[in-house]
Amino acid sequence: MRMIKWQNGTVITPDQTKLPLQEVTLEIKTVDQMAEAIKTLRVRGAPLLGAAAGFAVALAAYHSNAKTREKFLAELEAAGTVIKRQRPTAVNLFWGVDRVLSKARTVQGGVDKIRAEVIAEAEKIADEDAAQNRAIGKNGSILIKDGDTILTHCNAGELATVEYGTALGVIRTAWEEGKNIKVIADETRPLLQGARLTAYELRREGIPVTLITDNMAGWIMHKGLVNKVIVGADRIVQDAVVNKIGTFSVAVLAHEHGIPFYVAAPTSTFDLEHKASDVIIEERKPEEVTHICSCQIAPDGIDVFNPAFDITPLKYVSAIICESQVFYPKDFNKLKKRT
Ligand code: MRU
What we know:
Layout: E1 5-7, E2 10-14, E3 25-28, H1 31-39, H2 46-63, H3 69-84, H4 91-106, H5 111-141, E4 149-152, H6 167-176, E5 182-186, H7 193-205, E6 209-212, H8 217-222, E7 228-231, E8 235-237, E9 240-244, H9 247-256, E10 261-264, H10 287-290, E11 291-292, E12 295-296, E13 309-313, E14 319-321, E15 326-327, H11 332-337
Parallel strand pairs: 4-5, 4-7, 5-6, 7-10, 10-14
Antiparallel strand pairs: 1-2, 2-3, 8-9, 9-13, 11-12, 14-15
The protein binds 5-S-methyl-1-O-phosphono-5-thio-D-ribulose.
5-S-methyl-1-O-phosphono-5-thio-D-ribulose (MRU) is lined by residues 41, 44-47, 90, 154, 156, 160-161, 166, 193, 232-234, 243-244, 308.
């Protein structure tokens, strides 16, 4: 199912903060509405953020009244700056803005020509992401065997992408190939993307899924109840994988128990000019920890630390699955050589 669509100057996408209890569709018409949707995680997940970023610049182009090329390009740049300010960690957000802006700059011609090309480029990003996720699914499914129980963290499913999902794309392909598999979904505190979104998506597909709280993962591994882990990524740098907070703990636990830990992501999530030490980890508001939904669970005024992501060194990663190939540890030095 398409998670984001362009419809005559409006971006159509589900409001992910309402799932799984309500299925609400957002109709985003302005850059500011898109910025708000990104900030509040109505639109979330690295590849989806890449597509949303492209469409945000397309919204600026579609609704602009600028008459000159210079003024028009300046408006698109300003839209890109607004979008990039919303979240610092998922590289796709920056990549999506930059890709559409650089297209805009290279178009020879006036405002109408640039506008048409900007919208086409944003749609191309979305189409490519959909195709890449299916390729990731195919490449990754060879790692999944009949009878596997696979633990996943956060939501790297179709909701986090334009279509099909990355980590859940691999699971989906294995399931479509007839493999008898089960999934264990970490709830993923504080914002519960595992409980709200992964559990919802897999149930809808009929793929067997069991929900656990994050602190159960170690015990479940110790009991031999899981034999593979697969997660998505928000940024893959030369020496590490950046993903939802809690991923690092899962990776260390998998390593301790000799369980393969796989990462599935499109190349739009690769940022091979940087290292782990360069990455800005988003810190979000304390209420996400002191409250569950709108219910307060901690004393008033308590100090809170709320990093939204963590960083897993490559030594814990058994393979990175992307649309073109599977990188195994023997290939990881190629990631560094790309710079
Ligand atoms: O804060 P979120 O919900 O945007 O974080 C999403 C994740 O961490 C996902 O695991 C990641 O983006 C991969 S999505 C294919």
